[in-house]
Amino acid sequence: MSRFEEKTLHSKTIFEGRVIRVQLDTVELPNGNTSTRELVMHSGAVAVMAINSENRMVFVRQYRKPLEREILEIPAGKLEPGEDPDDCARREMEEETGYQAATLKKVSSFYTSPGFADEILYLYEGTGLTEGEARPDEDEFVERVELTLEEAFWAMEAGEICDAKTVAALYWWKSKVLEGK
């Protein structure tokens, strides 16, 4: 046991939906006191930085209800239970953009908000793109947008790109350009 570990004394699911489960845990703190933790449990997700032959990154514009507005994001989606992240990345990129990648490489993985959620996101780079037809889910309305690195940073400065996975992807792309790769 680490010196900061919180021992779970009681856990109660308070909501279970299609995307998340919310639970309330009572924990014993390292100093012996108790506290509660509100936790969001999620099966994980993937995101793809797809770079086309013209050195433009592929984004999708979509409405995000929690923000009550449209934003630009890299293609991404939720892992189905037991689904391999590589397979999910290929599926999501094709569904949302129509593109297939000849090369799909896992770049990193990270927890999106570990203070209250266990969602892990697997970040991929997709290259050697072949264009096809997008097949978004029936409740998904997206528009494919392709931007240069400079245009993408302008979009970020304008607040059109504002989610963590896409901001991380832009800085990763910028570091690759600066390295000459």
TrEMBL record:
| Gene Ontology biological-process entries | nucleoside phosphate metabolic process; ribose phosphate metabolic process
A Pfam match is NUDIX
Keywords assigned by UniProt, alphabetized: Hydrolase
Q: Which GO terms describe its molecular function?
A: pyrophosphatase activity
Report the InterPro entries cross-referenced here.
Nudix_hydrolase, NUDIX_hydrolase-like_dom_sf, NUDIX_hydrolase_CS, NUDIX_hydrolase_dom
Which residue ranges run through the membrane? none
State the source organism's domain of life.
Answer: Bacteria
Q: Name one GO cellular component term.
A: cytosol
Per the record's keyword annotation, is Hydrolase included, yes or no?
yes
Q: What are the Nudix hydrolase domain coordinates in residue numbering? A: 41-169
Q: Which cofactor does it need?
A: Mg(2+)
Entry similarity comment: Belongs to the Nudix hydrolase family.
| Name of this chain's protein | ADP-ribose pyrophosphatase
What is the species of this protein?
Answer: Marininema mesophilum
